[in-house]
Design brief:
The protein has about 80 residues and is α+β, with helices and mostly antiparallel strands. The protein has one domain (about 10-75): SH3 type barrels. The chain has 2 helices and 5 strands; from the N terminus they run ββαβββα. It has a 5-stranded antiparallel beta sheet with strand order 4-3-2-1-5. Residues about 1-5 have low confidence and may be disordered.
């Protein structure tokens, strides 16, 4: 049985919030949602402090790898 390729969320760390200090906190972990069009334009779709997803410059974040068990716990709590 083959697994379906489903887009999955990934995690990013905010390394710069210049211009977005109300929406983003530096050194905080954020959930990024898949958005191929945004990536083509140098942006990422992130669930920010408002609890909604918005586009931000990709340069404000760095990706982080999280073990599967921790990933599940974070997403469940979100």
């Amino acid at each position: 049985m083959r697994k379906l390729n489903r887009p999955t969320s990934r995690f990013l760390i905010c390394v710069d919030n210049k211009g977005y200090s109300v929406s983003l906190e530096k050194r905080k972990l954020y959930v990024a949602l898949p958005d191929a069009m945004a990536l083509k334009h140098g942006q990422v779709r992130v669930i920010d402090e408002s609890g909604e997803d918005y586009l931000y410059p990709k340069s404000l974040f760095l990706p982080i790898t999280i073990p599967q068990s921790l990933r599940k716990a974070i997403l469940k709590a979100a």
